[in-house]
Write a structure and sequence with these properties.
heterodimer; A: alpha/beta; Aspartate Aminotransferase, domain 1; Aspartate Aminotransferase, domain 2; 2 domains; seven-stranded mixed sheet; four-stranded antiparallel sheet; 16 helices; 17 strands; 41% helix; 16% strand; globular; B: alpha+beta; Sufe protein. Chain: A; two-stranded antiparallel sheet; disordered N terminus
């Protein structure tokens, strides 16, 4: 996404994180009598008032089912729902708004591809290539495909820094048998930003299509699916300051045209008889049943909110936070950070010597600091780094330097407590 | 008579930290009558328990190896302490009451001898305020029950 003109004018002004925080009502909550320090953004982000208001306003002023009512309310709701599709298309710089399919979340989007492209278009002998740092949602659908249809599943290793080894990646494609590469754009555990341009170029050179899991990436980076030359791109609304229950599959139109439907039902058909049913045009072919109308409206508001601040400003702020956090945490004896990728974002997984991640998380919680602990839906990656789990702090556009300091101080107290 | 553990609300009692750091019953038995593993894949906690029965059927030795959080290790250690010299039936009854305690924070009605043992386990009652951590405290007990049932694997409920 290009920086918004509004931001370009303000770009000389300092990032006003206090003003941004005021947009998020929940951030003024006290937890156990302490200010909430919310550092679990990679799991789910908080919602700005703009999102809350957009959904409330829709429910209070113009709500009905979409695409079928011949009445005013339904027409207005359909317009709002389709405007959300336009917003997503522009957000990803899609060539065609029909390439945007609404799903429940990234997981459903990947399952849609595994089902409709994997079972419907790929040949059984074509392999799927994933990386060692995928979220379970980008592992299990391909295992189901393998177990059902026999499509081999290949895994490319990550190096000790937590980066994809591009030489190994190319070697995994060399026999030309990989039909689809499915890789994260930004690791939910290590914070690694993967070299997606190179991944796409190499994969295409060997005839493989590429699915990018942008669940974390869209929160921190501008994404241009045409510039990336990707074939599929998925993300979820709730990590992008939007509501739960709404996700996106973007795919090249010619691929969507070739793919059979995922779920059957209303909305996705053209005509139905007991003998024969014809499908609706894309993207509606993939949107069976009443969609997440209000959530799509909320997602549009979230996208507008992020675009108004601008990725240049968000990126600079989050880079400052990440640098500061990495420096602060490096000073804590016994603290190990998993992954040291050159190109990384504000998602930091760490372990403390002799203290279990769950104890770390519970004791931080008692200090009002919310982090995640466990395997982060990436068990194979935990094995790769030889740990049972980690604690993870993940930042958002509203995270402050003081919160990072509170985290570092909180971790030191946990260490003292267990000493 | 039900006892309230309101004054023991903090999750990490000194007793827990102590038993978590320096468990008394950690190790493994070479000569044992039963053993079972417990595994909580959600958090990666793993425990294995070994039991030796005496001629009267009572547990004479309970030893465990645990890889997990302070709560699960302390719970395994305190469990090993209270089930030593108990019959399997007494151990099962203790588990039922312990489970009620870690879910509710209060000790259910019980006889004098059980009450003494539950008081030893009472430092763990604070987990009832942390629903995600209750399984940490009960995992070793599930392994114990599995071992007594002749099974080799248990998983947290």
């Amino acid at each position: 996404m290009k920086p918004q003109p509004a931001w370009t004018e303000r770009s000389a002004a300092p990032y006003d994180v206090a003003r941004i925080r005021a947009d998020f009502p929940i951030l003024s909550q006290k937890i156990r009598g302490k200010d909430l320090v919310y550092l679990d953004n990679a799991a789910s982000a908080q919602k700005p008032r703009a999102v809350i208001e957009a959904m409330r306003a829709a429910m209070e002023t113009q709500y009905a089912n979409v695409h079928r009512g011949l009445h005013w309310m339904s027409e207005r709701t359909t317009e709002a729902y389709e405007a959300a599709r336009d917003a997503v298309a522009s957000f990803l710089n899609a060539a065609d708004r029909a390439e945007v399919v609404f799903t429940r979340n990234s997981t459903e989007a990947i399952n849609l591809v595994a089902h409709s492209y994997g079972r419907g278009v790929m040949q059984r002998e074509q392999a799927v290539l994933i990386s060692e740092m995928e979220h379970h949602s980008n592992i299990v659908p391909w295992q189901l495909l393998r177990d059902e249809r026999g499509n081999p599943l290949r895994v490319v290793r990550v190096n000790d820094a937590g980066e994809i080894d591009l030489t190994a990646f190319e070697a995994a494609l060399a026999d030309g048998k990989v039909g689809l590469v499915a890789i994260t754009h930004l690791s939910n555990v290590l914070g690694t930003v993967t070299p997606v341009e190179q991944i796409v170029r190499i994969a295409h050179a060997y005839g493989a299509k590429v699915l990018l899991d942008g669940s974390q990436a869209v929160v921190h980076l501008p994404v241009d699916v045409q510039a990336l030359d990707a074939d599929f791109y998925v993300f979820t609304g709730h990590k992008l300051y939007g509501p739960t229950g709404i996700g996106v599959l973007w795919a090249r139109r010619e691929l969507l045209e070739k793919m059979p439907p995922f779920l059957g039902g209303g909305e996705m058909i053209s005509t139905v008889s007991f003998e024969r049913t014809t499908w609706a045009e894309v993207p509606h072919k993939f949107e069976a049943g009443t969609p997440a109308i209000l959530e799509a409206i909320g997602l549009k508001a979230a996208i507008a909110y992020v675009q108004n601040i601008g990725y240049a400003a968000i990126g600079a702020h989050e880079a400052m936070l990440t640098d500061h956090a990495l420096r602060q945490l490096a000073h804590i004896p016994g603290l190990r950070i998993l992954g040291q990728a050159q190109n990384r974002a504000g998602v930091i997984s760490f372990t403390l010597e002799n203290i279990h991640p769950h104890d770390v998380a519970t004791l931080l919680d008692r200090q009002g600091i919310a982090v995640r602990a466990g395997h982060h839906c990436a068990e194979p990656l935990m094995h790769r780094f030889g740990v049972d789990g980690t604690a993870r702090a993940s930042f958002a556009l509203y995270t402050t330097r003081e919160e990072i300091d509170a985290l570092a101080a909180g971790i030191r107290r946990v260490k003292e407590f267990f000493a | 008579m039900s006892e309230n553990f309101d004054d023991l609300r903090d999750l990490y009692q000194e007793v827990i930290l102590d038993h978590g750091r320096r468990p008394r019953h950690a190790g493994r038995l070479e000569d044992f009558d039963a053993t079972a593993k417990g595994d909580n894949p959600m958090c990666g906690d793993r425990v294995q328990i070994w039991l030796k029965y005496g001629p009267d059927g009572r547990i004479v030795d309970a030893v465990f190896e645990a890889r997990g959080c302070a709560i699960s290790v302390a719970s395994a250690d305190l469990m090993a302490e209270v089930v030593t010299k108990a019959t399997p039936e007494e151990a099962r009854s203790l588990f039922e009451k312990f489970r009620t305690m870690v879910r509710s924070g209060t000790c259910p009605e019980c006889a004098e001898e059980e009450r003494e043992k539950l008081e030893q386990l009472a430092p763990l009652s604070g987990v009832h305020e942390f629903p995600s951590r209750v399984k940490c405290a009960t995992l070793p007990w599930h392994a114990l029950i599995a071992a007594m049932n002749g099974a080799t694997e248990a998983s947290s409920e």
